[in-house]
Amino acid sequence: MEFKDVSPSSQSEEQLRFLVQEKIAEGETDIPSERALESALGISRTTLRRSLDVLEKEAVVQKRNRKGMQINAKQTINILKMNSMSSQLPGKQTISVVSNEVVNGDVEASSFLKLDATQPLFKLIRLREVSGRPFSFEISYLNIRRFKGIETIDFNNESLYQILEERYNTKPTYGREELRFKPACEVLASYLKVPLDTALFEVVSKAFEEHDEPIEYSKQYLIGDQIKYKINAQHIFDYLEDE
Fold first, then answer.
1. Are residues 148 and 225 in the same domain?
2. Other beta carbons within 10 Å of 194
3. 55 lies in which domain range?
4. What CATH number should be reported for the domain holding residue 33?
5. 7: exposed, middle or buried (C-beta count within 10 Å: 0-12, 13-18, 19+)?
6. 125-156 residue pLDDT tens
7. How many H helices and E strands in the chain?
8. Same domain, 104 and 61
9. Using the 8-state DSSP alphabet, how is residue 30 labeled?
10. Residues in contact with 172: Cβ distance below 8 Å, sequence separation at least 6, in sequence order
């Protein structure tokens, strides 16, 4: 087996990421000076600056005019990454169920899930908070006949994708997302604690498993000034639209 030691810059990047996560969890945005970081991490100024440059390009930290570096307070989500939002966000998260019920078909969701509009759907609405602040209002639709008993599961502080994988042996492998702005209506403004008509991200997600079988249709509403999206995809030319 062949291996090699982790380079000082890679090691310091990981240490800095851990520091950033700790600061976010504590509700802080300031990071120590370069001199303090040098001493704490035991690395050279050159290595430290190289690591900070990497984190700045990834928008983890940002420069302030004549005031050093600051943690970027906006949360970053990879729009093409097929894992739960819980695993992408740092800081302490709270996920509260607003409602879960069996409903007659929503036109868009039923069409995606290949169901007749009269067939029942499981509808799950949840509010996500990060570090004590409202972050997203999330609505998910699933085929209740496929996921029998799902309406009895307690989804408070639970990952939907993890439950689908562990209980139903179903794992999303790819998805399609539509991203647009939407002004906050009274319901969204109330739950997200923002003024009426605040600009929100509306993300319509369609999750599939292997062999193009649809799993989940969802809509997420996120506060515009708390979130930034990035695209970090591999094998992009393997993705082809069906004819």
1. yes
2. 18
3. 8-71
4. 1.10.10.10
5. exposed
6. 999 998 788 989 999 999 999 999 999 999 99
7. 7, 10
8. no
9. B
10. 82, 161, 164, 207, 208, 209, 215, 216
- 67 and 84 co-located in one domain: no
d(CA 76, CA 190): 24
The string over 38-72, giving b where at least 16 C-beta atoms fall within 10 Å of a residue's C-beta and e elsewhere, is beebebeeebbbbbbebbeeeebbeeeeeeebebb
> What pLDDT is attached to residue 230?
56
For residues 125 and 63, membership in a common domain is answered with no
The single residue listed with the structure tokens 């700790």 is: 22
User: How far, in whole angstroms, is CA 224 from its chain's centroid?
Assistant: 14
What is the per-residue pLDDT for 219?
A: 95
Q: What is the pTM of this model?
A: 0.62
Comparing CA positions, the residue from 16, 53, 23 lying closest to residue 37 is 16
Here the tokens at position 26 are: 């504590």
Q: List, in sequence order, the alpha helices (H) in 120-181.
A: 160-168
Q: Are 159 and 86 in contact (CB under 8 A)?
A: yes
pLDDT tens digits, one per residue of 153-194: 999 999 999 999 999 999 888 888 888 889 999 999 999 999
